[in-house]
Write a sequence for this structure.
C-alpha cells in the first residue's frame, strides 16, 4: 500500500505532503509517514521542512475511527515531540481546517502560516475528549492560559485572522499557499532562523482564583460533563509543572476521557449525524432539482421562522397569508427576530437587512407560480392542508416541490390532494424554526427520489441537520415524545410534583424538564391536537387530566404567565404553584389514584425507557432508518444531552437487558397498555445483540 504521506526535497526544502482524503485525518499510516519523513529530513540536505496537505484541508484531527482500537506506534504525542525536536526549522502551511491533532501537529512546528479562509481549533471537547497530543500544554504557552481555556473548552475554531492575533499563526498569506510557504521557508533559511519550540516558552500566569472561577462557570454551563473540567486540570498542570510532566498529566487525563461513556456517546453522535444524511437505497448521484425561489404558506410561529432560514441562505422567499393583517403580523415576527439577531451579535445590521430584503409578503397564490419549493405551515388540520395542497397543484409549475410542515398529519393523504404526489414531501421544522437544528424529512409513499435527495441537500444549505422519517402519526420525534410525555404526566398524577419530575430529568441531563417544555410550547397546542383525535387515539386519559384542566383554567403556560408552574413576568423564572398541586391531588383522587413518593430513578427510567421502547417499534417498522437517526432527532430537536448519545445509544450503554427488565417491571406495576416490551427489544436481548451491532448487521 502506498503511504498517504510523501516526502521530497525541492531545492533545499524538505516537503512533507499529507494526502489522506477526505480530511487528512491522522491515521496510523499518516503518523508513520510524517514520522519517517521528519527522520529523513534530519539526514538529508534540506535546510528547512514544510508540512503541507493535499485536498480540501490541512489535517483535521486524529482519526476518530481508530479510537477504541489498540493504539499503534508512533503515538501522536510522540510524533509531535519528534517534529518539535527537529534540528531543521519546520513550517506548517495551513488551509481548510487544522483541528484537534491537526492543530497539535502545527503547534509542534516551529512556524505556522495559513491562508485567509483557514480555521484552526481544538474541538476535542465536542467528542468528550481533551487535546491529547500536547495541545493543553502548548496552546497556553502560545496564547496564554485564558485564551487557551476558551478555545479548548468551547471547542470552537477561530479563523486565520483571529489565530494570527492570538499568536497561534505567525503569518496569514495571500495567493497560492505552497508558493507562499516555500518563499517563507527560503526566508527562514536565509536568516538562519531559530527553531522556535513552543514547549520551551513560559506560560503566562493567571490571576489568583481565575481558574476556580472558570471551573465554576463551566460546571454550570456544561453541567454533567467531565471533559471540560479535565481540560482545566491540564491547563493548571501547564501553569504549575514542567512541560514533560504536564504532557504526562495530559496523557493520563486524555485516556480517562477516551474510556468514558461520555466520549463514546459523543463520538457516536459525530458519526450518527453524518450517517443520517445518507439514505438507504438512494444513489449518491441522484440528480437534484434547482431550488432558488421558495414559497411559504402561513406566516405564524413556524412559517415566519422557516422563511428566515431560506432568506439567510440567499434564497428569495414569498410568504403567503390569508389577509394583510395576518401577513403584517408574520412579517412583524420576522423583523423582531432579525433585530434580536443583530442585538445578540449573530449578524450585522447590513446582513439582517439583506436577508430581510429577500422575503416578500403576498396574499395571492399566483405569486407562487414560479416557486421551486413551497412549504405549507398553516394550522394543524388535515382538511385545511389538503385544501392548500389542491390550490398549490393548480398554481405551481411542474416540478416544484410541495412540502408540508405538519407535526402529525398523514403526508400521504396531504399529497393525495394533488395530481403530483411524487413531488410532495414532509419538511418538519422545530420551533423556533430559525434556530433549531433538526429537520425531519418525511418521505411519503410516492415521494420521488430526486425530491428526497434535493430536500436533504437543501437542509444542509440552510444549516439544518436532516433525518429521514417514514409516515406515521408524529413521525420519529413526536411519536416517541407522546410516550415520554405520558409517563411524565402519570408520574405527576401518581404523586411526584412537576418540579420533582423536571428536576430529575434536568439533573440527568435534559436541557429542560418535560413539564417546563409543555409550558414553553403552550399547553393549548397538545390540547387542540388531542381534541382533533378520536377518543380511542388520544392515549391514556389519566395522563392528560391535569394538562387539560390547566388549559380550561386558561393556564396555557409561559404565554399566560402560568401553566404547570407560575412564571415571573420579568425573569420568566418558574416557581411551583400551590393551585396546581391542589388540582393534581383533586384529579388523582377523582381517578382513584393513591399518591405516593416517586424517586428520581423511577422518574428517569420511566420517561427514558418509554422513549426507547417506542424507538424500537419505530425501527422495527422502518420509520427510522437506523438507531443513530433517532439519536440525532432527540439531540438536535428535543434537548437530549449529546453526551448521553441519544435515547437509543443510551439504551445500548446501560444494556438492553436492563432496559427490558425495567420495562417488564413497569408492565407488571402499571399494566401492559402502556408498557408492552417492543418485539425488537425482546429479540435483541434474546440474541444478545446490541442495537449498534444490529444496525451494523443490516448495513446501516
Ligand atoms: N477522523 C475520521 N474521519 C473523519 C474525521 C476524523 N477526525 N473528520 C471527518 N471525518 C470523516 C467524516 O466522518 C465524513 O465521513 P463520511 O463521508 O464517510 O461520512 C468525512 O470525513 C467528511 O466529513 P464531514 O462530512 O464532516 O465534512 P465537512 O467538510 O462538513 O467537515 C470537518 C470537515 C470540519 C473537518 C469535520 O469533519 C470535522 O469537524 N471533523 C472532526 C474534527 C475533529 O473533531 N478533530 C479532532 C479529533 S480528536 C483529536 O484530534 C484527538 C487529539 O487531540 C489526540
Ligand atoms: P400558527 O397558528 O402560529 O400559524 C398558522 C398560520 O397559518 C396563521 O398565521 C394563519 O393565519 C395561517 N393560515 C391559516 N390558514 C391559511 C391559509 N389557508 N393560507 C395561508 N395561511 C393560512 O401555527 P404554527 O404553530 O406556526 O403551526 C403551523 C404548522 O406547523 C402546523 O401544522 C403545526 O403542527 C406545525 N408545527 C408547529 C410547531 C410549533 O411548535 N408551533 C413545530 C413544528 C411544526
Amino acid at each position: 500500500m502506498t503511504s498517504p504521506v510523501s516526502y521530497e526535497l525541492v531545492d533545499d526544502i524538505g516537503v512533507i505532503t499529507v494526502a489522506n482524503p477526505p480530511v487528512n485525518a491522522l491515521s496510523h499510516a499518516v503518523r508513520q509517514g510524517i514520522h519517517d519523513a521528519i527522520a529523513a529530513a534530519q539526514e538529508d540536505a534540506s535546510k528547512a521542512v514544510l508540512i503541507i496537505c493535499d485536498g480540501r484541508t490541512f489535517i483535521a484531527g486524529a482519526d476518530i475511527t481508530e479510537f477504541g482500537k489498540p493504539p499503534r506506534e508512533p503515538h501522536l504525542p510522540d510524533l509531535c515531540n519528534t517534529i518539535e525536536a527537529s534540528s531543521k526549522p519546520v513550517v506548517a502551511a495551513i488551509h481548510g481546517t487544522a483541528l484537534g491533532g491537526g492543530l497539535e501537529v502545527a503547534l509542534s512546528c516551529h512556524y505556522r502560516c495559513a491562508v485567509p479562509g483557514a480555521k484552526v481549533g481544538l474541538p476535542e471537547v465536542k467528542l468528550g475528549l481533551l487535546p491529547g497530543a500536547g495541545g493543553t500544554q502548548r496552546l497556553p504557552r502560545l496564547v496564554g492560559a485564558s485564551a487557551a481555556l476558551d478555545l479548548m473548552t468551547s471547542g470552537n475554531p477561530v479563523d486565520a485572522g483571529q489565530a494570527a492575533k492570538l499568536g497561534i499563526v505567525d503569518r496569514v498569506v495571500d495567493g497560492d499557499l505552497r508558493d507562499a510557504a516555500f518563499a517563507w521557508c527560503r526566508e527562514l533559511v536565509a536568516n538562519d532562523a531559530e527553531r522556535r519550540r513552543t514547549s520551551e516558552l513560559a506560560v503566562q500566569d493567571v490571576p489568583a482564583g481565575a481558574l476556580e472561577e472558570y471551573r465554576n462557570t463551566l460546571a454550570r454551563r456544561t453541567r454533567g460533563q467531565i471533559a471540560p473540567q479535565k481540560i482545566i486540570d491540564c491547563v493548571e498542570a501547564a501553569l504549575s509543572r514542567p512541560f514533560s510532566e504536564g504532557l504526562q498529566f495530559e496523557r493520563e487525563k486524555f485516556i480517562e476521557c477516551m474510556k468514558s461513556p461520555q466520549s463514546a456517546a459523543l463520538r457516536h453522535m459525530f458519526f450518527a449525524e453524518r450517517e443520517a444524511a445518507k439514505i438507504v437505497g438512494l444513489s449518491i448521484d441522484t440528480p437534484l432539482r434547482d431550488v432558488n425561489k421558495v414559497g411559504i404558506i402561513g406566516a405564524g410561529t413556524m412559517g415566519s421562522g422557516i422563511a428566515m432560514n431560506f432568506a439567510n441562505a440567499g434564497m428569495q422567499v414569498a410568504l403567503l397569508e390569508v389577509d394583510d393583517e395576518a401577513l403584517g403580523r408574520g412579517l412583524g415576527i420576522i423583523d423582531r427576530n432579525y433585530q434580536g439577531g443583530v442585538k445578540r451579535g449573530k449578524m450585522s445590521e447590513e446582513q439582517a437587512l439583506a436577508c430581510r430584503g429577500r422575503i416578500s409578503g403576498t396574499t395571492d397564490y399566483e405569486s407562487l407560480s414560479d416557486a421551486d419549493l413551497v412549504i405549507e405551515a398553516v394550522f394543524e388540520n388535515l382538511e385545511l392542508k389538503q385544501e392548500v395542497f389542491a390550490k398549490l397543484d393548480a398554481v405551481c409549475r411542474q416540478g416544484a416541490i410541495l412540502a408540508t410542515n405538519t407535526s402529525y398529519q398523514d403526508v400521504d393523504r396531504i399529497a393525495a390532494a394533488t395530481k403530483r404526489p411524487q413531488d410532495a414531501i414532509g419538511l418538519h421544522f422545530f420551533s423556533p424554526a430559525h434556530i433549531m437544528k433538526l429537520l425531519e424529512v418525511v418521505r411519503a409513499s410516492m415521494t420521488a427520489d430526486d425530491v428526497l435527495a434535493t430536500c436533504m441537500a437543501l437542509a444542509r444549505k440552510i444549516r439544518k441537520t436532516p433525518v429521514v422519517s417514514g409516515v406515521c402519526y408524529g413521525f420519529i420525534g413526536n411519536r416517541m415524545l407522546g410516550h415520554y410525555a405520558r409517563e411524565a404526566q402519570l408520574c405527576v398524577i401518581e404523586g411526584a410534583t412537576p418540579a420533582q419530575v423536571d428536576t430529575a430529568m434536568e439533573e440527568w441531563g435534559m436541557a429542560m424538564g418535560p413539564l417546563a417544555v409543555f409550558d414553553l410550547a403552550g399547553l393549548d397546542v397538545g390540547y387542540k391536537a388531542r381534541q382533533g383525535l378520536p377518543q380511542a387515539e388520544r392515549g391514556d386519559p389519566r395522563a392528560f387530566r391535569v394538562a387539560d384542566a390547566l388549559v380550561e383554567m386558561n393556564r396555557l403556560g409561559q404565554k399566560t404567565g402560568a401553566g404547570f408552574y407560575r412564571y415571573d413576568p420579568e425573569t420568566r423564572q418558574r416557581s411551583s404553584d400551590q393551585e396546581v398541586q391542589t388540582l393534581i391531588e383533586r384529579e388523582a383522587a377523582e381517578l382513584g389514584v393513591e399518591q405516593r413518593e416517586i424517586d428520581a430513578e423511577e422518574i428517569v427510567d420511566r420517561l427514558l425507557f418509554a422513549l426507547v421502547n417506542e424507538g424500537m417499534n419505530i425501527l422495527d417498522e422502518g420509520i427510522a432508518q437506523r438507531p443513530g437517526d433517532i439519536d440525532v432527532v432527540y439531540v438536535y430537536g428535543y434537548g437530549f444531552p449529546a453526551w448521553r448519545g441519544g435515547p437509543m445509544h443510551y439504551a445500548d450503554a446501560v444494556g438492553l437487558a436492563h432496559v427490558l427488565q425495567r420495562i417488564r417491571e413497569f408492565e407488571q406495576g402499571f399494566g401492559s397498555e402502556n408498557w408492552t416490551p417492543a418485539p425488537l427489544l425482546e429479540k435483541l436481548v434474546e440474541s444478545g445483540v446490541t442495537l449498534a451491532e444490529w444496525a451494523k448487521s443490516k448495513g446501516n
User: Anything to note?
Assistant: The chain is about 50% helix and 10% strand.
